[in-house]
């Protein structure tokens, strides 16, 4: 995939082909070719490699301390639901709450 992007970038930069014709030739949008050009200018050939789509972080993930406290309470008190667990976590001053 990076090789395809590199060839498209070279077609625009070195050979002087218009972005629109390169985009049509490779079956992508003009915006995509412009993005490849920008990435190439910023980071060279390495920047054209596939990038991960994985999010950088998960804002909803609870801390290990809170997770351990919840799991311990669930093991000890299987009948307790989420509301009761939160009440007990507040009593135990486990923060931040899930």
UniProtKB/TrEMBL annotation:
SUPFAM superfamilies: Homeodomain-like. It comes from Trujillonella endophytica. InterPro entries: Homeodomain-like_sf (IPR009057), WH-like_DNA-bd_sf (IPR036388). This is Helix-turn-helix domain-containing protein. It comes from the Bacteria.
């Amino acid at each position: 995939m990076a090789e395809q992007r590199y060839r498209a970038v070279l077609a625009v930069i070195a050979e002087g082909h218009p972005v629109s014709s390169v985009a049509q030739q490779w079956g992508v949008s003009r915006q995509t070719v412009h993005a490849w050009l920008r990435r190439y200018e910023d980071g060279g050939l390495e920047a054209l490699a596939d990038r991960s789509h994985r999010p950088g972080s998960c804002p909803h993930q609870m801390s290990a301390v809170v997770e351990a406290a919840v799991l311990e309470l669930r093991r000890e008190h299987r009948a307790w639901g989420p509301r009761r667990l939160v009440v007990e976590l507040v009593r135990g001053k486990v923060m931040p709450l899930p």
